[in-house]
Amino acid sequence: MVFDLGSLLSQFTGGGTAAGATDHFDKVAQSASPDLLSQGLSAMFHSDQTPPFGQMAGQLFGQANPSQQAGMLNQILGSMGPGVLGSLVSGAQGGGLGAIVGQLTQGGAAPSAITPDQASKLTPEQVQVIASHAEQNNPGIVDEMSSFYAQHAGLIKTLGGAALMIALAKMAEKHQG
């Protein structure tokens, strides 16, 4: 039996609910191209019906395993130039976040790679600050992170049905177009 992605997406948009979004998202994520999935996730992150990107990135970080956490941080920090990293380090209050990011970035230079052990030392709240700062200085980070999360679609389910509905609706729109 051939899986019909278009049929599944149209079924969902014809009467999908937040409760059914998780099951639909699982099926779509297994069959959709990474590009289509990334576009849906980007629309979800940009939507005014979902929390800000930084908040969702922090939430996803909290649900991720240490390897995924390191991948997220490497992607986010890699998108920032040394000046932006330096302002994040110097702007962090209390030394906690500034010291951690400073260690990760070695004083403002982008790290070669953050390890899972280093990543696991950060809290979701700290990652929220980092992600928000990255988005302010490089709005394209949302699309870059959407591509990252498309490779880790299981994490996206932790954002809940309402967010998944937005992603599915955008994927249906793109698939039909």
Notes on the protein architecture:
The chain has 177 residues and is mostly helical. The protein has one domain. Helices cover 73% and strands 0% of the residues. The protein contains twelve helices and no strands. The longest helix has 16 residues. It is elongated. The mean pLDDT is 81.
Structural class per helix/strand content?
mainly alpha
Q: How many structural domains? A: 1
Shape: elongated
Mean pLDDT: 81
Biggest beta-sheet profile? none
What's the helix count?
12
What's the alpha carbon Rg, rounded to whole Å?
Answer: 17 Å
Ranges where pLDDT stays below 50 over 5 or more residues in a row are none
Helix amount, in percent? over 70%
Q: Beta fraction of the residues?
A: under 5%
Can you count the beta strands? 0
Summarize the model shown.
The chain is mainly α and 177 residues long. The chain has helices spanning 5-15, 18-31, 34-46, 53-63, 66-78, 82-91, 96-105, 116-119, 124-137, 141-150, 153-156, 161-176.
